[in-house]
Hints:
By secondary structure, this protein is of the alpha/beta class. The protein has 2 domains: about 10-135 and about 150-260 and about 470-480, Aldehyde Dehydrogenase, Chain A, domain 1, CATH 3.40.605.10; about 260-450, Aldehyde Dehydrogenase, Chain A, domain 2 (3-Layer(aba) Sandwich), CATH 3.40.309.10. About 45% of the residues lie in helices and about 20% in strands. The chain has 19 helices and 20 strands. Strands 12-13-14-11-10-16-17 form a 7-stranded mixed β-sheet, with helices on both faces. A 6-stranded mixed β-sheet has the order 7-6-5-8-9-19, sandwiched between helices. It is globular, with a radius of gyration of 26 Å.
Amino acid sequence: MTPRFPDRVGQGSLSRLASSVPTEGDRPEIPVEAPYSGETIGTIPAGTPADVSAAVERAREAQRAWADRGVSDRAEVVRRFHDLVLDRRAELLDVTQLETGKARIDAFEEVLDVATNARHYAHRAEDYLAPSRRKGALPFLTRTTVHHHPVGVVGVVSPWNYPLTLAVSDALPALLAGNCVVCKPASETPYTALLLRDLLREAGLPENVFQVVTGRGSEAGGALVEESDFVCFTGSTETGRTVAERAGANLTDCSLELGGKNPMVVLADADLDRAVEGAVRGCFTNAGQLCISFERLYVQHEAYDEFLDRFVRRTRALDLRAAYDYGPDVGSLVGPDQLETVERHVEDAVEEGADVLTGGRARPDLGPYFYEPTILRGVTDEMRTGREETFGPVVAVRPFDTEAEAIELANDSDYGLNASVWTGDAARGREVARRIECGTVNVNDAYAAAWASVDAPMGGRKDSGLGRRHGVEGFLKYTESQTVAEQRGAAIGPPRRVPDSWYAKGMALALRAMDRIPGVR
């Protein structure tokens, strides 16, 4: 029997976190549920637009002093936070599991991600923000420098599936760039964000530089989009369109990581043992509630039967259960809505002729929202799970003949977030990957190789989003670039007493010369 609370978390600690959320007057309460049991574990304030406005105002007041502290001081705070995340990982894992119902090993991936982002950006922020010299308009006469200034207040609207990673990993570069952050976590998973806020303050972050406003997306989330100077949103494509529309109306820049219907391609020369393990991780990590997980699996005919046999046997052996310790491979879905979507997609596929090779059942004996890892064969585009994102532990497997067909199948989607290619020929794998229309593509890995390459940009194409996280792109998006150009000596323009025709002829000759001089052109 799974305990109601893990060892390091109790009703009292959750109540303390919830009571620390500032509100403008009395607010209704939103219940928070533990997916393992379906029990209510606490309540949080249902924040309103007034609460968001107050938080943004406090952030604006704090932002100038935070930016004036200098990059090295800000980086030192983030380095201390990095150490606290690792030191206090057991508590973070407990709260994350309590709110999401995920397996502990999946929660640990979030700890790894936060620490990796903290380390990366803390050590590179100074270089990213350093003024850079650019080529001026006229060689030796124009000195041009680019500066990067913080945008102000960044609004982070984070989802429930990765409440540790997505509440703070995107916020860290924003903070290092000199911004303040207001985070509106999903109402299903507020306590993880509140605990992260406390760890940031313990690391030395001033109180109003990172704030959390709890509430429903339609109220608090929408208000945060309206109030922020930059919006960072992770969630469904449908909601992302609304966020983009509201941000655009205010000419507010935004980054959006949205849905995916991600493909995995297994070529005939792949190491099948590695490919099967990759498929298990790529399809069933976090019970499939992962934007970059795979719901479409394509296997070349020569390897199809052997791969499918191994994949089904490996999936059946997965340990599906509730536990606040390491051991289970797969945990629970987050709640009733997600369970209903998964059941509806699988039932529709079976009614339309697809075969369930393993799984295909809810498991109320384990907990109210558990669903077995499921492999389907015979899924077509006319079925709901053929085109729509299921966001659960369900994958459709299909054979293909040629490499060109595999690429066509992989690209036949409105989404373009993540993909994976498995082959014994690394050069071939990289070339196939290059031709797949996704923001990240992994060769002989499911998703971690690209996701954990935090020096490289990560994000979606097509309906999978706008903008990028990670790398210099994920840092400078939180800044306004400014060009300062100093003209020395001769001005740019016709000199006095020189006929315009002479000036035009001379400039044309100068441009031709500049095109031919290395280091000037």
